[in-house]
Amino acid sequence: MPLTGSFGEMGGGGEGATYTVDDALTKMGFGTFQGLVLAYAGMGQAAEAMEMMLLSFVGPAVQAEWGLSSRQESMITSVVFAGMLVGAYTWGIVSDNYGRRQGFLITAICTFSAGFLSALAPNYGSLIFLRCLVGVGLGGGPVLSSWFLEFIPAANRGTWMVIFSTFWTLGTVLEASLAWLVMPTLGWRWLLGMSSFPTLFLLIFYKFTPESPRYFCTKGRIDEALSILEKISRLNGAELPSGKLVSDHIHELEMDEKCNPSEDTLLLSPTKRNDSPIVSPKNKVSSDTQGGLSSLLLLLSPELVRSTLLLWIVFFGNAFSYYGLVLLTSELSTQNKFPGLLLAAAIVDRIGRKLSMSTMFFICCVFLLPLMFHQPENITTALLFGARICITGTFTVVYIYAPEIYPTSIRTTGVGVASSVGRIGGIICPMVAVGLIHGCHQTLAIFLFEVVVFFAGTAVLFFPFETKGRELTNNSVISPSSSNSNISL
Hints:
about 500 residues, mainly alpha, two-stranded parallel sheet, 22 helices, about 70% helix, disordered N terminus, membrane, Major facilitator superfamily (MFS) profile domain-containing protein, transmembrane helix, MFS, transport
């Protein structure tokens, strides 16, 4: 019989009753507190999109003013991606060891400072250096998304993460509008300077941001986690569950002891269970012993290696195909992201993350297949439009799924490393796929996209478990064998 209630509920709220962060969030629901967190994290998402979008306006302007070659112009964009590759990994480790707030504070400082100074760059070399630093700061995007996700109740987490993703589209629209107003009269330097100000707002409102209670639980700082939950309770006008707040892996063991007491249960090590393996203390992330190498080794531990490698394949395939299709369809409006986001929002919490991603990947293959042969222009445009909708949808869902499969102690590290692998796909895509098309090898280029998308979709099918409706874990890893159960982790 599936266990869906908390131990506190099963114990009737009496002495010894316990509850987890997920129990508390589920009972309090999505309210004013989460709305404020969404606004702050969304501001960061929009700011990142603006910094990326401006590259398409600044590059040609700088090339004309400074007489740059095409290769030098493309380097302005490439160094941003290179910086993001480094930043995504670095800030993930920082935030897992020192807190989500510390992670996105440093990234905001780096992004704003380098972004604003870019407007004052006296020469090409300094501009390249500063834009690379902007990329390092932008690599912290997964920290903000993970921070927001850790405040959302499990039942509708997917839908709210899609709504969070719409801030990226909002940022691209704002940047395009700003460029339309600024570039003709004031020039590219003003655009660079003004585009950095949304990140400044993150710094201004930083003191009002709370730390993730899940992070506090992983560090054993239960009282501080409870303080945040009490603040959520006050702002949402909802009561906390009765009992004592505990970390989720302790809570899970208590539930087993309550529902299935036996000698075997009492003898089980608290670091490993037959039906749900969890990370042992040796490998557990801690602020004083965990380093970058050990974080990576933990991602490749027996409990996580399958999910990690498959996630890398999906991120690489997603970024490679997404940026390739964007380059191939530059004449299409950036607003065609909206249909992809709407599609993801409609299905992610209904049919699940795995089925959503695999379906959209394979439908993308269907859209691309006819393009291996010559098609009328209107048919080509329609097929590319459909392919971009699907890839946008998968990109949105994978950024929901990725933080859900990792324990809180290495969540942002796991998402950051996966995002870095995706950046590699974004970097090599123009050199390979678009290069083939410019060399009049369209059939080969489309076939390459087809293969990459197909393998990404196939990799999704081999993910060990579905995360729809599941509670996030603090120190444990979801067991594949229990992927269809309702046991709270």
